[in-house]
Amino acid sequence: MYICICNAIRECELRKAARQFGGGGAESVYAKMGKAPNCGHCLEEADEIVQEEREALFEASSAA
Fold first, then answer.
1. What angle do CA 35, 25, 53 make, to 5 degrees?
2. Above 90 in pLDDT, residue 10?
3. What pLDDT shows up at residue 42?
4. What torsion, rounded to 10 degrees, do the Cα atoms 8, 49, 42, 36 define?
5. Three-state secondary structure along 2-63?
6. What is the pLDDT of residue 43?
7. pLDDT digits (tens, 9 = 90+) for 11-50
8. Which residues, in sequence order, are CB contacts of 43 under 8 Å at separation 6+?
9. pLDDT of residue 64 exceeding 80
10. CA atoms of 58 and 43, how far apart (whole Å)
11. What is the value of pTM for the model shown?
12. Is 1 helix (H, G, I), strand (E, B) or coil?
């Protein structure tokens, strides 16, 4: 599913990038992907996805 239509960013791509790049919200992850939000409609959902991935990483690292 596409999260950002303007940049053609798929949910799986955003999740992968959120795991790879530390810190910041969706705009920061977009920048590290070489993108920038255009219309901004995606940012709320993208921020939620980034947060989910970071929480999953934290849980995985604390369980190990």
1. 100
2. yes
3. 97
4. -60
5. EEECCCCEEHHHHHHHHHHCCCCCHHHHHHHCCCCCCCCCCHHHHHHHHHHHHHHHHHHHHH
6. 98
7. 999 999 999 987 899 999 999 999 999 999 999 999 999 9
8. 25, 26, 27, 37
9. no
10. 22
11. 0.90
12. coil
- Considering the four listed CATH numbers 1.25.10, 1.10.10, 2.60.290, 2.40.160, the one that applies to the domain covering 2-63 is 1.10.10
Which tokens hold the place of 8?
A: 């053609």
Are residues 26 and 46 in contact, defined by beta-carbon separation less than 8 angstroms? yes
Residue keyed to tokens 């934290």? 58
- What is the spatial distance between Cα 16 and Cα 64, in angstroms, rounded to a whole number? 20
Q: Each residue of 11-20: b (16+ CB within 10 Å) or e?
A: eebbbebbee
